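Table 4 source record.
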Amino acid sequence: MKIKHKIALVAALIATLLAAQGTALAAPAQKPNIVFIYADDWGWGDLSCHGNTWLKTPNLDRLASEGTDFLQFNVLSPVCSPSRAAALTGRYPSRFGINTVFGPQTPPEMPDWLDGKAPTISRYLKTAGYRTGHFGKWHLGEGGPAMADYGFDESAVYHGPGPKVSPSGNGIPDKAVKFIEANKDKPFFLDVWLHESHLAHTPSAESMKLWKNLDERKQVYAAVITDGDNKVGMVLDALKRCGVEGNTIVVFSSDNGPAKSKEDDKGVPGKYRSYYSIGETGGMRGQKTSLFEGGVRTPFILRWPGHTPAGVKNDTTVLSAVDLLPTFCAAAGVTPSAEDKLDGENLLEAFNGKPVLRTRPVFWRINGQEKEPNYWPDLAVRDGDWKLVTTFDGKRVELHNLIADRNEDIAKDQSKEHPELVARLTKMALDWYATLPAKVDPTCVDPKRDTTKKTGRKSPKKKDTEEE
């Protein structure tokens, strides 16, 4: 063999060995931590970065400046329990018979808890090696599965099973911070489900003093929002202090629109009632319990350094709560099972700042408590830019183009101008409704409860509505 050929062969062998060594020594892709902060009754307009002129949310504003503010995010119910079921499972809550709030007024046709076999973000990520924690509100039923059955390694909740945490004070963020500190060297998934701005309002003395220049109503609500914003700040500071900020997805959102204020419900000082619930929807029609956008469009701020563009307001990507499970799983390199029949879709490309066109329609169903003027719809569907709301029988409808009319102004109802579109969307909504279970799953019902009599949910007549 000629000398030059020998040299070439040796060089090739060395190059191959170096390449193999480089492959062996290359660090595996690091899985991102995921922190999901879910507020309660926090309206789309209750942020200063959304244009509010009297509420201040500096920590959320900072999060938005460091990430992307998705302006077209929808929860899948305008009330707590079903909204949270959708966010956790990636399936419409009505698939599990969860159509309203768990509690003393749960209707007989609804289960007593979320099915322990339901797919959950926490279980998927735990199986993939994540440490999982849930601190704060649960409200997906008690008396059934333990939090560990849903995939959580650690938990402390109110309105749920297992160890408890108070909704007021800093118990929730304190536990979240300790979880971050204890798990900073491994991938983790963390729910921080805050109480603010739900009733009963229990603002801190410090925040009340900060807003003493406002009138009585605004002072209480501004103080509550400040307390919630400060709790977000505690979590963000912990991520930075622990050196994991750069590899952590942080999401802030809310379970439904703001609650309605009631003139005759002032309560007592220190435990303020709904008289002080003056949250804002940003001009959108409806509030909590309404299928109009004011009830189901909520804040969605996402920060993921190196992935999500900073300081961007995304008003084109349509996201929904059922998309969280498949998208979080994709970020973690996990593929959900087809057997779980998820309703959401993987929108990771949107998290990475790329334009994404949603391919699936979005559906809603609610057990309404009130009717006029903004609470009469029982069902809704969005397909593309069009949203139709209707009654269970399909006889009453409204149609709105959410790009041209985000606020769903009743005077801009386009149902008469587009009869073919109304027929198609109404059929979609009614066909979807027909697929939902008509009877409660007996494995998810307390055996002491009578489910033979089917009734609609009535408004509770208790004074303290913390359980609503």
